């Protein structure tokens, strides 16, 4: 009836939440400061980590991290006061969004986010045309985070020890 909750494995989730709350996104890029934007930022950061640290030996660890992140998001949605039906529909939609982003990043053959402006525009700027400067800034941030994560020790990532600072 009740799902188990692994509170001990929240370190990476907490770090992703911290990264998603960076004032850069809301002050410089003027992204909407709401739950949906923060979840999207969590997804993009997490997907970068997943893609860079692909390794068959870590499938179980990453599955547990994925489950933990989605479990935490579900708990946050419930704390917003949504009922079971709304929570289930929201989680289903978030799951589709996560896999849409992951699929597009894995299958487009592009190595840098500045080549993926359509994806960033779709999820963060609702396909509005007047956000080119902000899309470029967001792409630069994501590219820098991607480069930063490339050199990280996987054990540190699993522990949420990610000390990224935007240049």
Describe this structure in words.
The protein is mainly α and 167 residues long. The chain has one domain. Helices cover 66% and strands 0% of the residues. It has eight helices and no strands. Helix 1 (11-20) packs across helix 3, helix 3 crosses helix 5 (84-107) and helix 3 crosses helix 7. The N and C termini lie far apart (47 Å).
Return the average pLDDT rounded to an integer: 86
Fraction of residues in β-strands: under 5%
Percent range of helical residues: 55-70%
- Rg calculated over all Cα atoms: 16 Å
Number of domains: 1
N- and C-termini, Cα separation: 47 Å
Biggest β-sheet description: none
- SS field, number of helical segments: 8
Q: Helix and strand layout, with pairings?
A:
Blueprint: H1 11-20, H2 23-28, H3 35-52, H4 59-79, H5 84-107, H6 117-124, H7 132-150, H8 154-158
Helix pairs in contact: 1-3, 3-5, 3-7, 4-5
Keywords:
167 residues; mainly alpha
Brief rundown of the structure:
With 167 residues, this protein is mostly helical. It has helices at residues 11-20, 23-28, 35-52, 59-79, 84-107, 117-124, 132-150, 154-158. It has one domain.
């Amino acid at each position: 009836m009740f799902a188990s909750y692994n509170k001990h494995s929240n370190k990476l989730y907490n770090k992703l939440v911290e990264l998603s709350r960076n004032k850069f996104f809301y002050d410089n890029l003027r992204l909407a400061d709401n739950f949906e934007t923060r979840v999207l930022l969590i997804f993009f950061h997490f997907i970068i980590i997943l893609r860079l640290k692909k390794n068959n030996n870590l499938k179980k660890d990453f599955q547990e991290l994925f489950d933990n992140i989605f479990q935490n998001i579900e708990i946050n949605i419930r704390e917003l006061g949504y009922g079971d039906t709304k929570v289930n529909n929201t989680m289903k939609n978030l799951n589709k969004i996560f896999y849409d982003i992951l699929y597009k990043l894995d299958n487009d053959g592009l190595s840098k986010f500045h080549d993926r402006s359509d994806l960033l525009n779709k999820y963060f700027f609702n396909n509005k045309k007047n956000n080119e400067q902000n899309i470029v800034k967001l792409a630069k941030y994501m590219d820098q985070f991607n480069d930063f994560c490339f050199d990280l020790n996987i054990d540190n990532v699993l522990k949420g020890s990610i000390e990224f600072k935007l240049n």
